[in-house]
Protein backbone atom coordinates (compact mmCIF):
# COMPACT_ATOMS: atom_id res chain seq x y z
CA UNK A 1 0.00 0.00 0.00
CA UNK A 2 2.86 2.40 0.95
CA UNK A 3 4.60 1.59 -2.36
CA UNK A 4 1.43 2.49 -4.27
CA UNK A 5 1.10 5.90 -2.53
CA UNK A 6 4.75 6.62 -3.22
CA UNK A 7 4.37 5.88 -6.93
CA UNK A 8 1.24 8.10 -7.10
CA UNK A 9 3.16 11.00 -5.49
CA UNK A 10 6.03 10.56 -7.92
CA UNK A 11 3.67 10.78 -10.89
CA UNK A 12 1.76 13.83 -9.54
CA UNK A 13 2.51 17.21 -11.18
CA UNK A 14 2.30 20.16 -8.79
CA UNK A 15 1.08 23.66 -9.70
CA UNK A 16 3.63 25.79 -7.89
CA UNK A 17 3.47 29.30 -6.52
CA UNK A 18 6.93 30.85 -6.31
CA UNK A 19 6.86 33.38 -3.46
CA UNK A 20 9.53 36.12 -3.29
CA UNK A 21 9.84 38.76 -0.57
CA UNK A 22 12.29 41.51 0.35
CA UNK A 23 11.83 44.13 3.05
CA UNK A 24 13.65 47.48 3.23
CA UNK A 25 15.19 46.43 6.53
CA UNK A 26 16.96 43.41 5.07
CA UNK A 27 19.90 45.48 3.88
CA UNK A 28 19.59 49.01 5.16
CA UNK A 29 20.68 48.52 8.76
CA UNK A 30 23.11 45.66 8.89
CA UNK A 31 25.53 47.25 6.44
CA UNK A 32 26.36 43.88 4.88
CA UNK A 33 26.02 44.36 1.11
CA UNK A 34 26.52 40.64 0.49
CA UNK A 35 23.48 39.81 2.59
CA UNK A 36 21.37 42.40 0.80
CA UNK A 37 22.41 40.93 -2.55
CA UNK A 38 21.64 37.35 -1.48
CA UNK A 39 18.19 38.38 -0.37
CA UNK A 40 17.42 40.36 -3.51
CA UNK A 41 14.38 39.43 -5.54
CA UNK A 42 16.51 38.57 -8.56
CA UNK A 43 18.71 36.18 -6.63
CA UNK A 44 15.77 34.54 -4.87
CA UNK A 45 14.17 33.93 -8.24
CA UNK A 46 17.40 32.55 -9.74
CA UNK A 47 18.01 30.21 -6.82
CA UNK A 48 14.47 28.77 -6.94
CA UNK A 49 14.51 28.27 -10.70
CA UNK A 50 17.90 26.52 -10.46
CA UNK A 51 16.29 24.19 -7.90
CA UNK A 52 13.37 23.51 -10.27
CA UNK A 53 15.60 22.47 -13.20
CA UNK A 54 14.81 18.94 -14.36
CA UNK A 55 11.86 18.78 -11.91
CA UNK A 56 9.20 17.53 -14.28
CA UNK A 57 6.75 17.01 -11.41
CA UNK A 58 6.59 20.77 -10.69
CA UNK A 59 5.03 23.38 -12.97
CA UNK A 60 5.32 27.06 -12.02
CA UNK A 61 1.83 28.49 -12.02
CA UNK A 62 2.80 32.05 -11.03
CA UNK A 63 5.39 34.17 -9.23
CA UNK A 64 4.18 36.33 -6.33
CA UNK A 65 6.45 39.21 -5.34
CA UNK A 66 6.23 41.44 -2.23
CA UNK A 67 9.09 43.90 -2.66
CA UNK A 68 9.54 46.26 0.29
CA UNK A 69 7.25 44.44 2.75
CA UNK A 70 8.18 43.33 6.24
CA UNK A 71 7.98 39.67 7.21
CA UNK A 72 6.61 40.55 10.66
CA UNK A 73 3.03 40.09 9.44
CA UNK A 74 1.23 38.33 6.57
CA UNK A 75 -0.93 41.23 5.34
CA UNK A 76 1.12 41.55 2.17
CA UNK A 77 -0.73 42.09 -1.13
CA UNK A 78 0.97 39.36 -3.22
CA UNK A 79 0.94 36.89 -0.33
CA UNK A 80 -2.81 37.37 0.07
CA UNK A 81 -3.33 36.87 -3.68
CA UNK A 82 -1.33 33.63 -3.46
CA UNK A 83 -3.51 32.37 -0.60
CA UNK A 84 -6.67 33.17 -2.60
CA UNK A 85 -5.32 31.22 -5.58
CA UNK A 86 -4.49 28.35 -3.22
CA UNK A 87 -8.02 28.38 -1.79
CA UNK A 88 -9.39 28.41 -5.33
CA UNK A 89 -7.45 25.22 -6.09
CA UNK A 90 -5.09 26.86 -8.60
CA UNK A 91 -2.00 26.24 -6.46
CA UNK A 92 -1.00 23.14 -4.49
CA UNK A 93 2.71 23.84 -3.93
CA UNK A 94 4.42 26.91 -2.44
CA UNK A 95 8.15 27.42 -2.91
CA UNK A 96 10.31 30.00 -1.11
CA UNK A 97 14.04 30.57 -0.89
CA UNK A 98 14.00 30.06 2.89
CA UNK A 99 11.63 30.31 5.83
CA UNK A 100 12.58 33.93 6.55
CA UNK A 101 11.31 34.94 3.07
CA UNK A 102 8.00 33.28 3.88
CA UNK A 103 7.62 35.24 7.12
CA UNK A 104 9.26 36.16 10.41
CA UNK A 105 6.20 35.99 12.68
CA UNK A 106 6.61 32.82 14.74
CA UNK A 107 2.99 32.01 15.60
CA UNK A 108 1.40 32.84 12.24
CA UNK A 109 4.15 31.11 10.23
CA UNK A 110 3.64 27.97 12.31
CA UNK A 111 -0.13 28.14 11.77
CA UNK A 112 0.30 28.18 7.99
CA UNK A 113 2.91 25.41 7.90
CA UNK A 114 1.35 23.07 10.46
CA UNK A 115 -2.39 23.66 9.97
CA UNK A 116 -3.54 25.64 6.93
CA UNK A 117 -1.28 24.10 4.25
CA UNK A 118 -1.68 20.44 5.40
CA UNK A 119 -5.47 20.89 5.66
CA UNK A 120 -5.58 22.27 2.11
CA UNK A 121 -3.28 19.51 0.81
CA UNK A 122 -0.63 22.04 -0.16
CA UNK A 123 3.03 21.08 -0.29
CA UNK A 124 5.63 23.56 1.02
CA UNK A 125 9.33 23.80 0.05
CA UNK A 126 11.99 26.09 1.59
CA UNK A 127 14.98 25.56 -0.71
CA UNK A 128 18.04 26.67 1.31
CA UNK A 129 16.55 25.31 4.55
CA UNK A 130 16.33 21.90 2.80
CA UNK A 131 12.75 21.51 3.90
CA UNK A 132 10.06 19.76 1.88
CA UNK A 133 6.78 18.98 3.65
CA UNK A 134 6.27 15.96 1.35
CA UNK A 135 9.38 14.16 2.58
CA UNK A 136 9.94 15.77 5.99
CA UNK A 137 9.76 13.50 9.00
CA UNK A 138 8.03 14.27 12.31
CA UNK A 139 11.20 15.72 13.87
CA UNK A 140 11.61 18.27 11.08
CA UNK A 141 7.95 19.28 11.17
CA UNK A 142 7.51 19.46 14.94
CA UNK A 143 10.92 20.62 16.17
CA UNK A 144 13.26 21.92 13.47
CA UNK A 145 10.77 24.15 11.61
CA UNK A 146 9.23 25.74 14.78
CA UNK A 147 12.73 26.50 16.08
CA UNK A 148 13.72 28.14 12.79
CA UNK A 149 10.51 30.19 12.78
CA UNK A 150 11.21 31.27 16.35
CA UNK A 151 14.74 32.36 15.38
CA UNK A 152 13.37 34.34 12.42
CA UNK A 153 10.84 36.03 14.71
CA UNK A 154 13.58 36.93 17.21
CA UNK A 155 15.70 38.30 14.36
CA UNK A 156 12.80 40.51 13.25
CA UNK A 157 12.34 41.85 16.80
CA UNK A 158 16.08 42.53 17.15
CA UNK A 159 16.17 44.23 13.75
CA UNK A 160 13.22 46.44 14.73
CA UNK A 161 15.05 47.61 17.85
CA UNK A 162 18.20 48.34 15.84
CA UNK A 163 16.29 50.33 13.23
CA UNK A 164 14.47 52.37 15.86
CA UNK A 165 17.72 53.09 17.71
CA UNK A 166 19.46 53.95 14.44
CA UNK A 167 16.74 56.44 13.44
CA UNK A 168 16.67 58.04 16.90
CA UNK A 169 20.42 58.50 16.76
CA UNK A 170 20.20 60.20 13.37
CA UNK A 171 17.42 62.50 14.58
CA UNK A 172 19.45 63.47 17.66
CA UNK A 173 22.27 64.48 15.30
CA UNK A 174 19.91 66.79 13.41
CA UNK A 175 19.42 64.47 10.44
CA UNK A 176 16.08 64.15 8.69
CA UNK A 177 14.76 60.57 8.59
CA UNK A 178 11.30 60.94 7.01
CA UNK A 179 10.38 59.20 3.78
CA UNK A 180 8.70 62.32 2.39
CA UNK A 181 9.01 66.04 2.98
CA UNK A 182 6.29 68.63 3.54
CA UNK A 183 5.22 70.84 0.64
CA UNK A 184 7.63 73.74 0.25
CA UNK A 185 10.69 71.72 1.20
CA UNK A 186 12.91 69.07 -0.34
CA UNK A 187 15.82 66.82 0.51
CA UNK A 188 19.28 68.06 -0.35
CA UNK A 189 20.52 66.33 -3.50
CA UNK A 190 23.92 65.77 -1.91
CA UNK A 191 22.61 64.66 1.50
CA UNK A 192 19.16 63.08 1.82
CA UNK A 193 19.26 63.51 5.59
CA UNK A 194 19.29 67.28 5.19
CA UNK A 195 16.33 69.53 4.32
CA UNK A 196 16.42 72.59 2.09
CA UNK A 197 13.72 74.99 0.91
CA UNK A 198 12.10 74.14 -2.43
CA UNK A 199 12.67 77.22 -4.64
CA UNK A 200 9.36 76.78 -6.50
CA UNK A 201 6.93 75.43 -3.91
CA UNK A 202 8.54 77.63 -1.25
CA UNK A 203 7.32 80.77 -3.04
CA UNK A 204 3.77 79.38 -3.01
CA UNK A 205 4.05 78.74 0.74
CA UNK A 206 5.08 82.37 1.29
CA UNK A 207 2.07 83.54 -0.75
CA UNK A 208 -0.27 81.34 1.32
CA UNK A 209 0.97 82.95 4.55
CA UNK A 210 0.74 86.45 3.07
CA UNK A 211 -2.84 85.88 1.94
CA UNK A 212 -3.80 84.48 5.34
CA UNK A 213 -2.30 87.44 7.20
CA UNK A 214 -4.15 89.73 4.78
CA UNK A 215 -7.41 88.19 6.03
CA UNK A 216 -8.26 85.59 3.38
CA UNK A 217 -10.01 82.39 4.46
CA UNK A 218 -8.52 78.95 3.75
CA UNK A 219 -11.21 78.19 1.16
CA UNK A 220 -10.53 81.43 -0.73
CA UNK A 221 -6.79 80.72 -0.71
CA UNK A 222 -7.46 77.24 -2.13
CA UNK A 223 -9.73 78.71 -4.83
CA UNK A 224 -7.08 81.26 -5.76
CA UNK A 225 -4.34 78.62 -6.05
CA UNK A 226 -6.56 76.43 -8.24
CA UNK A 227 -7.48 79.44 -10.43
CA UNK A 228 -3.77 80.24 -10.88
CA UNK A 229 -3.11 76.63 -11.95
CA UNK A 230 -0.74 75.89 -9.06
CA UNK A 231 -0.24 72.13 -8.73
CA UNK A 232 -1.58 70.69 -5.49
CA UNK A 233 1.06 69.12 -3.18
CA UNK A 234 0.57 65.48 -4.26
CA UNK A 235 0.61 66.30 -7.99
CA UNK A 236 3.59 68.60 -7.55
CA UNK A 237 5.63 65.85 -5.88
CA UNK A 238 4.75 63.40 -8.66
CA UNK A 239 5.73 66.01 -11.27
CA UNK A 240 9.22 65.90 -9.75
CA UNK A 241 9.35 62.12 -10.23
CA UNK A 242 8.74 61.31 -6.57
CA UNK A 243 6.76 58.10 -6.00
CA UNK A 244 4.40 59.79 -3.60
CA UNK A 245 1.16 58.46 -2.14
CA UNK A 246 -1.01 60.50 0.21
CA UNK A 247 -3.75 59.31 2.51
CA UNK A 248 -5.45 62.68 1.99
CA UNK A 249 -5.89 62.34 -1.79
CA UNK A 250 -9.12 60.80 -3.06
CA UNK A 251 -8.92 61.37 -6.83
CA UNK A 252 -6.32 60.69 -9.53
CA UNK A 253 -5.63 64.40 -9.94
CA UNK A 254 -5.76 66.50 -6.80
CA UNK A 255 -6.85 70.10 -6.26
CA UNK A 256 -6.10 72.55 -3.52
CA UNK A 257 -8.55 72.30 -0.63
CA UNK A 258 -9.06 74.36 2.56
CA UNK A 259 -7.68 71.39 4.54
CA UNK A 260 -4.48 71.31 2.43
CA UNK A 261 -4.01 75.04 2.97
CA UNK A 262 -4.58 74.56 6.71
CA UNK A 263 -1.93 71.83 6.90
CA UNK A 264 0.65 74.17 5.36
CA UNK A 265 -0.32 77.12 7.60
CA UNK A 266 -0.01 74.97 10.74
CA UNK A 267 3.28 73.28 9.77
CA UNK A 268 6.03 74.36 12.27
CA UNK A 269 8.61 73.62 9.58
CA UNK A 270 7.55 76.88 7.91
CA UNK A 271 9.04 78.80 10.85
CA UNK A 272 12.21 76.69 10.82
CA UNK A 273 11.26 74.17 13.53
CA UNK A 274 11.98 70.57 12.51
CA UNK A 275 9.87 68.07 14.47
CA UNK A 276 10.46 64.33 14.09
CA UNK A 277 9.59 61.13 15.92
CA UNK A 278 6.10 62.31 16.85
CA UNK A 279 4.69 58.79 16.49
CA UNK A 280 5.99 55.25 16.77
CA UNK A 281 4.76 51.69 16.24
CA UNK A 282 3.71 49.74 19.32
CA UNK A 283 6.08 46.93 18.33
CA UNK A 284 7.43 45.19 15.24
CA UNK A 285 4.30 43.03 14.90
CA UNK A 286 1.68 45.79 15.22
CA UNK A 287 1.63 48.52 12.60
CA UNK A 288 -0.62 50.85 14.60
CA UNK A 289 1.10 54.15 15.39
CA UNK A 290 0.79 55.88 18.75
CA UNK A 291 1.75 59.44 19.67
CA UNK A 292 4.97 59.91 21.63
CA UNK A 293 5.22 62.38 24.54
CA UNK A 294 6.63 65.75 23.49
CA UNK A 295 9.65 65.20 25.76
CA UNK A 296 10.63 62.15 23.66
CA UNK A 297 10.19 63.85 20.28
CA UNK A 298 13.08 65.27 18.31
CA UNK A 299 12.99 69.05 17.82
CA UNK A 300 15.64 71.39 16.46
CA UNK A 301 15.89 74.73 14.69
CA UNK A 302 16.96 75.17 11.08
CA UNK A 303 16.61 78.87 10.36
CA UNK A 304 17.31 78.59 6.63
CA UNK A 305 13.97 76.75 6.26
CA UNK A 306 11.87 79.55 7.81
CA UNK A 307 9.43 81.14 5.35
CA UNK A 308 7.87 83.31 8.06
CA UNK A 309 8.96 84.84 11.36
CA UNK A 310 7.89 83.05 14.51
CA UNK A 311 5.56 85.75 15.82
CA UNK A 312 3.81 86.03 12.46
CA UNK A 313 3.48 82.24 12.45
CA UNK A 314 1.88 82.47 15.91
CA UNK A 315 -0.51 85.11 14.59
CA UNK A 316 -1.56 82.73 11.82
CA UNK A 317 -2.22 80.00 14.41
CA UNK A 318 -4.57 82.39 16.23
CA UNK A 319 -6.32 83.05 12.91
CA UNK A 320 -6.72 79.31 12.30
CA UNK A 321 -8.26 78.82 15.75
CA UNK A 322 -10.73 81.66 15.35
CA UNK A 323 -11.46 81.69 11.61
CA UNK A 324 -13.91 78.81 11.65
CA UNK A 325 -16.58 80.11 9.30
CA UNK A 326 -16.84 82.39 6.27
CA UNK A 327 -20.15 83.64 4.94
CA UNK A 328 -21.02 82.93 1.27
CA UNK A 329 -19.49 85.54 -1.00
CA UNK A 330 -17.14 86.68 1.76
CA UNK A 331 -13.42 86.42 1.01
CA UNK A 332 -12.37 86.31 4.63
CA UNK A 333 -13.78 86.00 8.13
CA UNK A 334 -15.50 89.09 9.52
CA UNK A 335 -13.16 91.48 11.34
CA UNK A 336 -14.34 90.71 14.88
CA UNK A 337 -15.77 87.23 14.27
CA UNK A 338 -15.54 85.08 17.41
CA UNK A 339 -13.95 87.90 19.44
CA UNK A 340 -16.84 89.99 20.81
CA UNK A 341 -18.60 89.00 24.03
CA UNK A 342 -21.37 90.34 26.24
CA UNK A 343 -20.00 90.88 29.78
CA UNK A 344 -23.43 90.27 31.38
CA UNK A 345 -24.53 86.91 29.91
CA UNK A 346 -21.11 85.81 28.59
CA UNK A 347 -22.40 84.92 25.10
CA UNK A 348 -20.95 86.17 21.84
CA UNK A 349 -22.14 89.30 20.08
CA UNK A 350 -23.65 88.85 16.63
CA UNK A 351 -23.18 90.98 13.54
CA UNK A 352 -26.12 92.78 11.97
CA UNK A 353 -26.39 94.94 8.86
CA UNK A 354 -29.03 97.59 8.00
CA UNK A 355 -29.51 99.69 4.87
CA UNK A 356 -31.38 103.01 5.09
CA UNK A 357 -31.62 105.40 2.15
CA UNK A 358 -28.85 103.50 0.42
CA UNK A 359 -26.48 103.80 3.36
CA UNK A 360 -25.24 100.58 4.97
CA UNK A 361 -24.65 100.37 8.71
CA UNK A 362 -22.97 97.40 10.45
CA UNK A 363 -23.43 96.93 14.18
CA UNK A 364 -23.16 94.24 16.87
CA UNK A 365 -25.70 93.20 19.52
CA UNK A 366 -25.85 90.57 22.27
CA UNK A 367 -26.88 87.14 20.95
CA UNK A 368 -28.98 86.39 24.05
CA UNK A 369 -30.95 89.61 23.54
CA UNK A 370 -31.39 88.91 19.83
CA UNK A 371 -32.74 85.39 20.41
CA UNK A 372 -34.40 85.40 23.84
CA UNK A 373 -34.65 89.06 24.93
CA UNK A 374 -33.20 87.94 28.32
CA UNK A 375 -30.31 90.42 28.21
CA UNK A 376 -29.80 93.99 27.05
CA UNK A 377 -28.71 95.01 23.54
CA UNK A 378 -25.12 96.11 24.23
CA UNK A 379 -25.34 97.56 20.73
CA UNK A 380 -22.35 99.22 19.09
CA UNK A 381 -21.62 100.27 15.50
CA UNK A 382 -18.66 98.59 13.82
CA UNK A 383 -16.94 101.89 13.01
CA UNK A 384 -17.25 103.02 16.63
CA UNK A 385 -15.85 99.69 17.77
CA UNK A 386 -12.94 99.97 15.34
CA UNK A 387 -12.07 103.43 16.68
CA UNK A 388 -12.09 102.20 20.29
CA UNK A 389 -10.03 99.10 19.47
CA UNK A 390 -7.48 101.14 17.50
CA UNK A 391 -7.17 103.53 20.46
CA UNK A 392 -6.43 100.52 22.70
CA UNK A 393 -3.82 99.28 20.20
CA UNK A 394 -2.10 102.68 20.03
CA UNK A 395 -2.09 102.96 23.81
CA UNK A 396 -0.53 99.53 24.10
CA UNK A 397 2.07 100.33 21.46
CA UNK A 398 2.96 103.50 23.37
CA UNK A 399 3.49 101.40 26.50
CA UNK A 400 5.76 99.14 24.47
CA UNK A 401 7.73 102.17 23.21
CA UNK A 402 7.99 103.58 26.74
CA UNK A 403 9.19 100.24 28.11
CA UNK A 404 11.77 99.99 25.36
CA UNK A 405 13.09 103.49 26.09
CA UNK A 406 13.21 102.78 29.84
CA UNK A 407 15.23 99.62 29.28
CA UNK A 408 17.58 101.40 26.92
CA UNK A 409 18.18 104.30 29.30
CA UNK A 410 18.59 102.00 32.30
CA UNK A 411 21.06 99.81 30.52
CA UNK A 412 23.15 102.77 29.38
CA UNK A 413 23.18 104.19 32.91
CA UNK A 414 24.44 100.99 34.49
CA UNK A 415 28.17 100.53 34.60
CA UNK A 416 29.67 97.08 34.68
CA UNK A 417 26.97 95.51 32.47
CA UNK A 418 29.08 93.07 30.54
CA UNK A 419 27.75 90.02 28.69
CA UNK A 420 24.42 90.28 30.53
CA UNK A 421 25.93 90.09 34.06
CA UNK A 422 25.52 93.04 36.42
CA UNK A 423 28.57 93.97 38.49
CA UNK A 424 27.28 96.05 41.40
CA UNK A 425 30.09 98.37 42.52
CA UNK A 426 28.26 99.13 45.76
CA UNK A 427 28.19 95.44 46.72
CA UNK A 428 31.88 95.10 47.87
CA UNK A 429 31.50 98.13 50.14
CA UNK A 430 28.34 96.69 51.70
CA UNK A 431 30.09 93.37 52.29
CA UNK A 432 33.05 95.17 53.88
CA UNK A 433 30.72 97.17 56.12
CA UNK A 434 28.89 93.97 57.14
CA UNK A 435 32.20 92.34 58.10
CA UNK A 436 33.15 95.36 60.22
CA UNK A 437 29.77 95.46 61.99
CA UNK A 438 29.88 91.71 62.59
CA UNK A 439 33.33 92.10 64.16
CA UNK A 440 32.11 94.95 66.35
CA UNK A 441 29.10 92.86 67.46
CA UNK A 442 31.24 89.86 68.38
CA UNK A 443 33.65 92.10 70.41
CA UNK A 444 30.92 93.73 72.52
CA UNK A 445 30.65 90.79 74.93
CA UNK A 446 34.40 90.79 75.63
CA UNK A 447 34.35 94.56 76.28
CA UNK A 448 31.45 94.11 78.73
CA UNK A 449 33.17 91.24 80.54
CA UNK A 450 36.37 93.30 80.86
CA UNK A 451 34.40 96.26 82.26
CA UNK A 452 35.03 98.52 79.28
CA UNK A 453 31.27 98.73 78.64
CA UNK A 454 28.50 98.93 81.17
CA UNK A 455 25.63 96.47 80.92
CA UNK A 456 23.35 99.26 79.67
CA UNK A 457 25.88 100.31 77.00
CA UNK A 458 26.39 96.70 76.00
CA UNK A 459 22.64 96.10 75.45
CA UNK A 460 22.20 99.35 73.53
CA UNK A 461 25.17 98.74 71.21
CA UNK A 462 24.17 95.09 70.73
CA UNK A 463 20.72 96.15 69.48
CA UNK A 464 22.27 98.74 67.13
CA UNK A 465 24.93 96.50 65.55
CA UNK A 466 22.56 93.49 65.30
CA UNK A 467 20.02 95.65 63.47
CA UNK A 468 22.68 97.10 61.17
CA UNK A 469 24.03 93.62 60.33
CA UNK A 470 20.51 92.39 59.53
CA UNK A 471 19.89 95.44 57.34
CA UNK A 472 23.18 94.99 55.47
CA UNK A 473 22.55 91.27 54.95
CA UNK A 474 19.16 92.10 53.38
CA UNK A 475 20.69 94.68 51.04
CA UNK A 476 23.48 92.31 49.99
CA UNK A 477 21.05 89.43 49.38
CA UNK A 478 18.78 91.66 47.27
CA UNK A 479 21.67 92.98 45.20
CA UNK A 480 23.13 89.53 44.61
CA UNK A 481 19.76 88.18 43.47
CA UNK A 482 19.26 91.15 41.19
CA UNK A 483 22.75 90.82 39.75
CA UNK A 484 22.17 87.14 39.07
CA UNK A 485 18.88 87.84 37.30
CA UNK A 486 20.13 90.80 35.27
CA UNK A 487 21.37 88.79 32.28
CA UNK A 488 18.16 86.77 32.05
CA UNK A 489 16.14 89.96 32.48
CA UNK A 490 17.90 91.60 29.54
CA UNK A 491 17.27 88.57 27.34
CA UNK A 492 13.59 88.24 28.25
CA UNK A 493 12.87 91.94 27.92
CA UNK A 494 14.46 92.10 24.49
CA UNK A 495 12.62 88.98 23.38
CA UNK A 496 9.15 90.18 24.36
CA UNK A 497 9.58 93.76 23.23
CA UNK A 498 10.98 92.51 19.93
CA UNK A 499 7.98 90.25 19.44
CA UNK A 500 5.53 93.05 20.22
CA UNK A 501 7.24 95.29 17.69
CA UNK A 502 6.16 92.73 15.08
CA UNK A 503 2.70 94.27 15.50
CA UNK A 504 3.85 96.99 13.13
CA UNK A 505 4.13 94.34 10.40
CA UNK A 506 0.42 93.61 10.85
CA UNK A 507 -0.78 97.22 10.99
CA UNK A 508 -2.13 98.57 7.74
CA UNK A 509 -0.59 101.63 6.19
CA UNK A 510 -4.00 103.32 6.03
CA UNK A 511 -4.87 105.43 9.06
CA UNK A 512 -7.76 103.98 11.03
CA UNK A 513 -7.74 100.63 9.25
CA UNK A 514 -7.41 97.43 11.23
CA UNK A 515 -6.87 93.90 9.91
CA UNK A 516 -8.26 90.58 11.03
CA UNK A 517 -4.71 89.27 11.54
CA UNK A 518 -3.95 92.12 13.97
CA UNK A 519 -7.14 91.43 15.95
CA UNK A 520 -6.26 87.73 16.34
CA UNK A 521 -2.62 88.45 17.15
CA UNK A 522 -3.36 90.98 19.90
CA UNK A 523 -6.68 90.17 21.53
CA UNK A 524 -8.03 87.24 23.46
CA UNK A 525 -11.51 88.69 23.94
CA UNK A 526 -13.27 92.03 23.52
CA UNK A 527 -16.11 92.82 25.97
CA UNK A 528 -18.81 95.27 24.88
CA UNK A 529 -20.67 96.99 27.74
CA UNK A 530 -23.81 99.08 27.64
CA UNK A 531 -23.09 102.71 26.80
CA UNK A 532 -20.55 101.70 24.10
CA UNK A 533 -17.81 101.03 26.62
CA UNK A 534 -15.25 98.45 25.47
CA UNK A 535 -12.81 96.38 27.50
CA UNK A 536 -10.09 94.37 25.77
CA UNK A 537 -8.12 91.35 26.99
CA UNK A 538 -4.69 91.18 25.37
CA UNK A 539 -3.22 87.75 24.64
CA UNK A 540 0.21 88.76 25.95
CA UNK A 541 -0.73 91.02 28.89
CA UNK A 542 0.88 88.68 31.46
CA UNK A 543 4.12 88.82 29.52
CA UNK A 544 3.95 92.60 29.30
CA UNK A 545 3.47 92.79 33.07
CA UNK A 546 6.70 90.82 33.40
CA UNK A 547 8.48 93.25 31.06
CA UNK A 548 7.22 96.23 33.08
CA UNK A 549 8.53 94.58 36.24
CA UNK A 550 11.93 94.16 34.60
CA UNK A 551 11.83 97.79 33.51
CA UNK A 552 11.28 98.80 37.12
CA UNK A 553 14.22 96.70 38.23
CA UNK A 554 16.53 98.25 35.63
CA UNK A 555 15.31 101.75 36.42
CA UNK A 556 15.93 101.26 40.13
CA UNK A 557 19.39 99.86 39.49
CA UNK A 558 20.23 102.69 37.10
CA UNK A 559 19.21 105.31 39.64
CA UNK A 560 21.33 103.65 42.34
CA UNK A 561 24.34 103.49 40.02
CA UNK A 562 23.89 107.15 39.12
CA UNK A 563 23.70 108.17 42.79
CA UNK A 564 26.72 106.02 43.57
CA UNK A 565 28.80 107.77 40.93
CA UNK A 566 27.80 111.12 42.44
CA UNK A 567 28.81 109.89 45.88
CA UNK A 568 25.30 110.08 47.31
CA UNK A 569 25.25 106.46 48.53
Structure in words:
- The protein is of the alpha/beta class.
- It has three domains: 2-172, Rossmann fold (3-Layer(aba) Sandwich), CATH 3.40.50.1390; 185-322, Hect, E3 ligase catalytic domain fold (Alpha-Beta Complex), CATH 3.90.1750; 387-566, no CATH class.
- Helix content is 52%, strand content 16%.
- It is built from 20 helices and 17 strands.
- It has helices at 2-11, 25-28, 33-38, 41-52, 77-87, 99-102, 106-120, 138-172, 201-213, 218-227, 233-239, 258-265, 310-322, 367-372, 382-413, 426-449, 455-501, 503-506, 516-522, 541-566, and strands at residues 14-22, 58-67, 93-96, 123-126, 131-132, 185-188, 191-197, 273-276, 279-283, 286-291, 298-301, 340-341, 349-356, 359-366, 380-381, 523-529, 533-538.
- The strands form six sheets. Strands 2-1-3-4-5 form a five-stranded mixed β-sheet, with helices on both faces.
- Strand 16 and strand 17 (533-538) form a beta hairpin.
- The longest helix has 47 residues, at 455-501.
- It is flat.
- The relative contact order is 0.06.
- Mean pLDDT is 75; it is low at 27-38, 247-252, 413-422 and 508-512.
Amino acid sequence: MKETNKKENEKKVYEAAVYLRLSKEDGDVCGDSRKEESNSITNQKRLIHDFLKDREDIHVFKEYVDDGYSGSDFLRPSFQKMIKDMEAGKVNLIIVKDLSRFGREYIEAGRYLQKIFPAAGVRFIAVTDHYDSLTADRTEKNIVIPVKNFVNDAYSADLSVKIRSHLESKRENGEYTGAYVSYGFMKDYNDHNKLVADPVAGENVKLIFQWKLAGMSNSKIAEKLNALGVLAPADYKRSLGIRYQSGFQKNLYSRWSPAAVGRILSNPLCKGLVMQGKKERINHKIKKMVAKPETEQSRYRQENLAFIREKQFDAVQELLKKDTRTNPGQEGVYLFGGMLFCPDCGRQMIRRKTVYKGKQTIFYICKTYNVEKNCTRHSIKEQELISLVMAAVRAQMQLVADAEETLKAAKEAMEGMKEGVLTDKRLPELEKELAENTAMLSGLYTDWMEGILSEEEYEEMKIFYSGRCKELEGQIRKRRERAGKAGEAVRKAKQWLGSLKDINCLLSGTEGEIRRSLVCFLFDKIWVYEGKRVEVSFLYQDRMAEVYSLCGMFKETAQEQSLYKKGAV
